[in-house]
Design goal:
Elements (H helix, E strand, L loop, with lengths): L9 E5 L3 H12 L3 E5 L3 H9 L3 E2 L3 H7 L2 E4 L4 H10 L10 E4 L5 H13 L3 E7 L13 E5 L1 H14 L4 E2 L6 H30 L3 H12 L2 H13 L10 H18 L4 H15 L10 H5 L5
Parallel strand pairs: 1-2, 1-4, 2-3, 4-5, 5-6, 7-8
Antiparallel strand pairs: 6-7
The structure holds NADP nicotinamide-adenine-dinucleotide phosphate (NAP).
The site of NADP nicotinamide-adenine-dinucleotide phosphate has 22 residues, from helix 1 and helix 4.
């Protein structure tokens, strides 16, 4: 059986946490026959009430369908499920759509496991919240053998109409999603650091939010400029050099210290800027920091 028909495919979902349940519900809403397994039975029952068929074991879920989506906490959990339930013997001919977040080693070991047991693998990273699945706001980064991704296209499109095919290198979704998350997380932590500073000084959080929105207006264009400067190797021209930013950061550091806030984030930023200065990049654009961050520190 494959998915080159107009009938919505039948699919199994292993792992019904926040994301796995969202995935299963999205398939149900799209008209698929959905089989589900989860360690805790309560989440299976919630999904069966929504139209899925519950399985007693992950082996049952795997046996029942060619297409199996896996979304559990991490790969150690998945490996435990594979070994505990003897899933190696069930992998032959299966298309495993692996949406668990992991490391580069995890993903490579998993690919070897699936292919070594005559299965087929599509690896992905979900870059949205469960609620956004199936909508235009959903984001799904995928890689794998192109014939597998093509075959899985109908299911992937149900989860994210604009899913991205990153090619055959199985590690790409992991790396890109971690790169994106690093940027988002750093920005959120910076935002929360600002909240701490305002709270210490008595500036209202409404005022902070209002001015965060004003200050953020420049961010998209500035990110694009930084990216183009790095991409084009043009980090010498600048309106605000690394030294200028380092000077500005000294005042941030001083204000944060005077307010008595935790300086751990400012120490990290200071360290990055100082690395750039030690690499003789002080007169260069802030974009030159990309070369600092690309360098392993021994
Ligand atoms: N939630 C999000 O917004 C989001 C967004 C993007 C990516 N992701 C990724 O999606 C994956 C799942 O996240 P989630 O939010 O769904 O996590 P979650 O709500 O914590 O669910 C974790 C899942 O793993 C299962 N599990 C944990 N330990 C297990 C064990 N020892 N044996 C068997 N099953 C076990 C849980 O089963 P029980 O129900 O029995 O505990 C549950 O099905 C993660 O890799 C995460 O990085 C999540």
């Amino acid at each position: 059986m494959n998915m080159n028909t107009d009938t919505p495919p039948s699919v199994s979902v292993i792992g019904l946490g926040a994301m796995g349940s969202g995935i299963a519900r999205t398939f149900i809403d799209a008209g698929c026959r959905v089989l589900v397994w989860n360690r805790s039975r309560g989440k299976v029952d919630a999904l069966t009430a929504a139209g899925a068929t519950g399985c007693d074991t992950p082996a049952d879920a795997m046996r029942a369908n060619r297409y199996v989506v896996v979304c559990v906490s991490d790969y150690a959990t998945w490996s435990g499920i594979v070994e505990e339930h003897g899933l190696r013997n069930q992998l032959k001919g299966k298309c495993v759509i692996q949406l668990t977040g992991g490391t580069i080693d995890d993903v490579c070991e998993h690919e070897a496991l699936i292919k070594g047991n005559d299965g087929r693998i599509a690896d992905g990273a979900v870059m949205c919240f469960p609620q956004q699945l199936g909508t235009a706001d959903a984001s799904l980064l995928m890689s794998g053998d192109q014939d597998v991704l093509e075959e899985c296209r109908p299911l992937l499109s149900m989860l994210a109409p604009q899913w991205t095919n990153l090619g055959e290198d199985i590690t790409r979704p992991t790396v890109l999603s971690r790169a994106l998350t690093a940027g988002i997380l750093t920005s959120f932590i910076g935002f929360l650091n600002g909240i701490a500073m305002c709270q210490k000084s008595g500036i209202s959080l409404d005022t902070y939010m209002e001015h965060t929105e004003i200050a953020s207006a420049i961010v998209p264009n500035e990110k694009r400029r930084l990216l183009e400067a790095v991409r084009d190797g043009n980090t010498e021209q600048t309106q605000a050099s690394l030294n200028t930013w380092a000077g500005a950061h000294q005042t941030i550091y001083s204000v944060a210290a005077t307010l008595g806030t935790n300086l751990v984030l400012q120490d990290a930023i200071k360290s990055v800027l100082q690395h750039g200065q030690r690499m003789q990049l002080g007169e260069f654009d802030l974009a030159a920091i990309a070369s600092v961050l690309a360098t392993e520190i021994k």
